[in-house]
Amino acid sequence: MSASPLAARPGRFRRFLAEYAQSPVAVVGAVIFGVMLGMAVFAPLISPQNPYDMMMLNLMDSRLQPGEVGSAGYMHWLGTDDQGRDIWSAIVYGLRISLIVGLGAGGIAAVIGTIVGIFAALRGGRIDSLLMRVVDFQLSFPAILVALILLAVLGPGVGKVIFALVTVQWAYFARTARSAALVESKRDYIAGAQSLGLGQTRIIFGHLLPNSIPAIMVIAAIQVANAILLEATLSFLGIGLPVTEPSLGMVISNGFQHILSGRYWMTVYPGIALVLLVLSLNLIGDRLRELLDPRKSR
Amino acid sequence: MTLFIFRRVLQGALVIFLMSVVVFVGVYQIGNPIDILINPEAPPHIRQETIERLGLDQPLPTQYYRFAVGALQGDLGDSYVYNVPAFQLIAAALPATLELAFTGLFLALVLGIPLGMWAGYRPDHWSSKLIMGLSILGFSLPTFWVGLMMIVVFSVELGLLPSGGRGDTREILGIELSFVTWNGLTHLLLPALNLALFKLGLIIRLVRASMQEVLKQDFIRFARAKGLPRRTVVGVHAFRNILLPLTTVVGLEFGSLVAFAVVTETIFSWPGMGMLIIKSIAVLDRPVIVAYLMLTALLFVVINLLVDIAYSMLDPRVRLSEEA
C-alpha cells in the first residue's frame, strides 16, 4: 500500500486534518498563519489609512506614541513613524508584500525543484549525478551570500528579489523531490501501473508526483518561511525590494533610525509581526514533518 | 590523497574563474559609473580623461582581461569613492569581520555544546524540552531584528553596552583587535552574541542528535558497566565522539557566519567587510563590490577545500570512492 496520506481521496484528507489537530501548538500555528493571510488579503479594509498614499499622511501626526489620537480623529494604537504613517497600517500592507514575495518565490522554487528532482530520479546515471553535483555545490554557499551576490549584480526590484530567492531555494526542493521520487518509483504500485501498460506520462503525473507531494510540502512550508526571512533581511539592508514596495523588512529598517532616540514602536511591532508570520509557518512545517515524513513508517 | 587534493584545488580554481566572469560582467552592467563619478557640469575633456583613466571606454572582454591580470597580481582596481586600491580597503576591513565571526562561533559553541549535550542526555526532562522549544524559536527569529532588540534593551533602556562601533583596539602582530581592551570587549559582546544566536539553534540540534546516537553505542554501555563515573562517560567518552560530526559542520558554518556578518555589521556599525560592501552597493563602487565578492568566493573555496580534506582524513571512504 502507498503510505501517502494526501493522495486524492477526501476521507484521507479529513483524517489527515484530524491528525494534524492533535497537536495544539500546530493548530495555534495554523490559526496565526490564517489570520495573517487574511490580514494581508483584506489590508485596505482593516487599516485606517493607505500608508503609502502621500495624500493621507499628515506630518502633524509624525512620531505619535502608541495609543495617541492623530489629526484624522482615530487612535494610532501602534503609534506612527516620522512621516506620520500609522504603524498598524504599515504592518498590514507590509505583510501583503512579504507574503506575495515569500509565497511567490517558494512556489516557483518548488515547481522548478520538483521538476528537476523527478527528472534526475527517473533519468539516473550521469544526468542525475551531474544535477546533484550542482545541487550540492549550490547548497555549500550560504543563502544570504548567493542572494547578496545576485542582488549586487542585478540591483533591487520585486522580480529580482524573487529570482534571487528562487535561485537560493530550488536546490532544496530538487534534492527532496529526487529522493521522494526514488523511493516511490521502487514501490509495487508503480510496477503494477507499468505492468498494466500505462504510459510514462500517466505514471509520472498520476502516480509518482501525487505520492511525492507530501515530502515536498514539508519543506515548502519551511522554505516559504525562509524566503520571507531572507527577503526581510535583504530589504532591511537596503538591497532587496525597492522603496515603493515596502515589505515588513523595510518597515523595520525605517524604524531602525529611531531606535537610539527611544522610539521603539517603529521597529518592535513590525518585528513581532514578522516573527509571528515566520514562526507560524515553521510550526506548520514541523507538524507536517511529523505526520508526512516518509522515513517514519506509520 | 595528493590526487584527491589536486582535483579539489582544480575544481576550486574553476569555481573562482566562473565567479570572476559572472561577477565582473554582472557588476559592470548595472548603471553607468561615469554618471556617478563625474560631476555632470564638468567640462567634456575632463569627462573624457576620467573615462579613459578608468578604462571604461574599452570593450567588455578587454576590461575583463585587464581586471583578471590585475586580480592575479592582487590589484583589483581603485575604489571610485575612496581612490585607494579596492583590495587594500577590503583587506583593512577583514580583521574586524574575522574577529567578529570567530567570537560569534566561539560563543555559539560554548553555549550550544553543553545545552545540546544536556538535551540529548535527558531528552524527556522539562528543561530539555524548553531548550528544544527555544531552538525552534531561534530558527524563526529574524537575526537582524534580534540585534535591534538587543540595542533597545542593553544600550537604550539599560545603558549597559554601547550600541555600535568597534571601541578601542590594540595592535597585536600587526592586526588591530578589539577583544584585548575592556572598551573593545564591551563593543564586541552584543554583535558577537547576535551572530552566535544565528547558529545556536543549529548547533544545539546537531549536538543533541549526535549525543543520542552516541549514547546508544556499545562503548558507552561498557564504560558505564565498568563503573566509570557519569562525569567521565559523558564528559570524555561521549564528548569526544560528538566532536567528530561537529568539526565538519563548524567549518561550513564559519563561512556562513562571515557572510551573515554583513547583517550584524550593518546593525552595530561594526567596521568590517560587510558594512563596506553594503555601502559600496549603495553607491555602485564597482571595484570594491567585485573585490569583496571575489575575496569571499576565495574564502569559501578554501573553507570547503579544508572541510573536504578534514572529512577525507576522518573518513577515508570518501576519498577512496572518488579516486576509484
What report would you give on this structure?
The complex is a heterodimer of chains A (298) and B (324). Chain A has 298 residues and is mostly helical. Chain A has eleven helices and two strands; from the N terminus they run αααββαααααααα. In chain A, α6 crosses α7. Chain A starts with 9 loop residues before the first helix and ends in a 6-residue tail after the last helix. Chain B is mainly alpha-helical. Helix content of chain B is 77%, strand content 2%. A two-stranded antiparallel sheet of chain B has the order 1-2. The longest helix of chain B is centred in the C-terminal third of the chain and has 38 residues, at 230-267. Classes of the chains: A mainly alpha (298), B mainly alpha (324). At the A-B interface, α6, α9, α10 and α11 of A face α1, α6, α7, α10 and α11 of B.
